[in-house]
Give the backbone structure.
Amino acid sequence: MLVKEGEIGFFSRKAQVTLFVIIALVIVAAAILIFAFREIDTSFEANLPAEIQPAYDNFLKCLEDEALTGIRLLEDQGGYIELPGFEPGSLYSPFSSQLRFSGINVPYWYYVSGNNIQKEQSPSRSLMEEQLSKFIESGIKNCDFDDYYERGFEISLGEPKINTIIQNDAVEVSLKLDLSIEKGFDSSAVKDHKISVNSKLGELYEDAKKIYDKEQNDLFLEEYGVDVLRLYAPVDGVEISCSPLTWSADEVFDNLEKAIEANTLSLKSQGDSRDYFFVDAGTKNKIRFINSRNWSRSFEVNPSDGAILMSKPIGNQPGLGILGFCYVDYHFVYDVKYPVLIQVYSDNEIFQFPIGVVIKGNLPRESYPVASADTEIQDLCQYKNTLIDVNTKDSMGRAIDSDVSYECSNTACYIGRTDRGNLNELFPQCVNGRIIAKAEGYEEAYGTFSTVSPGSVDIFLNKIYSIEVVLSLDGKPYNGQAVISFVSNNSKSIVYPDSKNVDLTYGEYDVEVYIYRNASLEFPSTITRQCVNVPRSGIIGIFGLTEKKCFDVEIPDQIISNVLAGGGSQYYYITQNEIESSRRIFIDAESLPLPKSIDELQTNYILYESRGLNIDFR
């Protein structure tokens, strides 16, 4: 091809322009890549200096440990880290709002309160995420860098802000925190941190919700309870007899306790769907149902003559001789209430929550409207029309600036912040609501106050002191596993020795120490055959003729790896002088024999109730 002379310049200039465009694109692409890699390096620890990397790995390990501890608390405590307010039971209803199990208070997802109100407090996934975030935020500040400080590291941490997402097979933890690490000439500053903790918390929680929804819809636990009641207690029937029939109420209730415990343990979520004890809830993981005779329960029966159930014969009265025989027709009406702990488990993870089972008049309870922990009064916070004067002070009467909220029927409305300890603001109207004051470094305080008319209220906040706990066993330092609780209106618990500091204020506490040691108590599965006499079908059943029916009761195998091996409880009033002048609280507990059988384990819990603690502030 021939090219004219003028055309050569044209093509040359065109090639140059094309080349410049290509170079510009390469430069832009390189800039984008450099910027992208800078972003990645800020978020992840991949390119940290080799001298800095171990300290940062230690920080991530601390973050993971805090997350795992929080996850364990959520699983152990029915989806709660901060337990909802405690509500005691009554003579009418044996349930408090929490079930004590293995030294842990687990909130009921459903229970009947002491004043006979059905209540629910099943947590939402978002509530669990919120509580887990707060727990990690609090714990991450106490990461141990002592070894690195001794090796010449300089480490500083800013204020953490954590967001957690509970997925089915993992918990994603995103942390924003200014972390600066320096050693020698090497330094690094990282702001964004993210870890993924392997956990089936989300999946176990979803299965827990499924089994709970099935119970609330079908009342299958009550249905099983009614079957047990009719098999193991005199309910109704006819026997040919001319003398009264009598039963000991104590013996009847004792048999019911044993039968409820055994039959509850026999329930299962896997196996043959035709099995009487099979519970089909559509769950992915295994379900365990637990009941103990040692838990609070109530049995009532009518008619009764004191501790005796009696039914008198018919046919031996004057005027009834035409019958030619005597028979006893009996009918007893029972009200039975007992707890069932439901455990959803996979491998080494267990999510557990209790439910109150209620049988009323020999029938499953009726589902009346339930008061929920999530219940809200619509638009309550929009209508603020009562002027209230709030003063927030410390224990010495000095003004404390606090955030003030007002709570009515589980709905909390933020009102404002006090200025020099005073707030004069409009409140929504409510009878016997709670004014809540929160201030950093002080224990949350509240006062019951009706806002139907203007008024004034003083709220006193107690300063919080961080105290190191030093535990000893039989007078010798102890660094094994223990759960230490300071029970009061605002209870605090720590898992020792992972956590050794507890935030306390002055006042009265029930101090409880549960010391656990490793063991391997294995209880193989057992099958017992039980037989009962039931009325025969047809007309002959009217005359009291019975037939024997038998069924197998299977108790699954169990392995207990941690056993109670020491501890005790002690009432203690912490004075203001003690809490202000002391840095440590020394607690000495007594050991218990290491149990080798289920009977010895039960004996330890009995012995625990009589053991005290030696407590000393220094």
Notes: The mean pLDDT is 81. The longest strand covers residues 507-523. The radius of gyration is 33 Å. The chain is about 25% helix and 40% strand.
